[in-house]
Fold this sequence. Notes:
- This protein has 369 residues and is an alpha/beta fold.
- Helix content is 42%, strand content 13%.
- It contains 16 helices and 15 strands.
- The strands form five sheets. Strands 2-1-3-5-4 form a five-stranded mixed β-sheet. A four-stranded parallel β-sheet has the order 8-6-9-10, sandwiched between helices. A two-stranded antiparallel sheet has the order 7-15.
- β1, α1 and β2 (41-44) form a beta-alpha-beta unit.
- The two termini are 19 Å apart.
- The model has no long low-confidence stretch (mean pLDDT 91).
Amino acid sequence: MFILFDASIIQDLENQDGQYKNDLIRLLNETTICMYHRNHYVSAISSDVAKSLRDFALSNDEKKIALAFDYIYRNYTILNSIIEHLNYFVLIGRFDNDWEFSENKLRVNYKFAMEQHFWDETFLIPENIEDDKYLLKIVDYEKSKYLPFQHISYKFRQEQGGGGKNIKQVFLTRLQEHAFVLSILDTDKKSPSDVYGATAKCFEGDSVIHQYKDIFYYIPNIHEIENLFSSDGFMMLSSYNGNTRNKIKEIENKSVSEADVFRAFLDIKNGYTYKKIHETDYLKKLFEADISTVTCSKGTCPCDKSCERIILQGIKKYLSDIFSNQCFESTFESSVDMLIPSIKEEWEQIFKIFITTCCCNSDKITGVN
Length: 369
């Protein structure tokens, strides 16, 4: 997280009572420990604020704190150059509310920032245990494209969400501890206009959690994380056969509304049966499946719209197959270039949300770490 100290933190500092000054020393010590462990990206709203905090630490014989804020003072311009490229930043000051999000600022009262877990690294809470590997591939690729982020690192502590109520509870628990969190959720939407699946609904329907949308959790406009890697290039690295890939391309080229975003909502892992297709108007228009021509285990199909015969085969281990393919790295960039525009946009958005929430100082600060 990009955390800045606001000018209000040093307002009339020399005339503040002893309790405030003690609290400030404690807060600045937690900040310095955070910078030592490189948990977050720390700076100040202005070089004057950094200088005042350095001088305040020196006057209290807090040399390590002074070195940390001297580093911020001397590198202020470079440190703060990334602000405009982030979704938002955190501002610590003497504010009325514990926290309040306004425009691109998350204003946090200094007492809130003194809680035990505020300075811990951000907790990444994916739905599935391996999702971080796939998300980081996106983040590293997008990060390499932007010069302002070349000197920025990131750090997180992984949690296991597990989907549904479990991931919601982990999310809430970390927030209650005053820690920063990030969760990227699946929509499980079968079409662009479909409703969210259970986990996304669980977040969207909770008024406490919903206020953190696009700040601490994000729901990409895709079916699930597999769809972020759904170009022909990636599919060729999996076990998707040529006929299946050709069927997908055929569907995308139909003159049907939103056929061009089919890959974003394709159920890559499970594929489709005739029954699934007939349950969704969007899919029925795309597949135009004639149930009368279907043969199943019962012979000429008497099942009508309940037929479980597969019309498009899925791959259960789709992502693990792709990432373990020996040709993955050599074909990665060309596979990314082949992604449909709406999914490329999601890559950029995921990167921006991730780097905003998980960025940290990467420099070694003399006397601090």
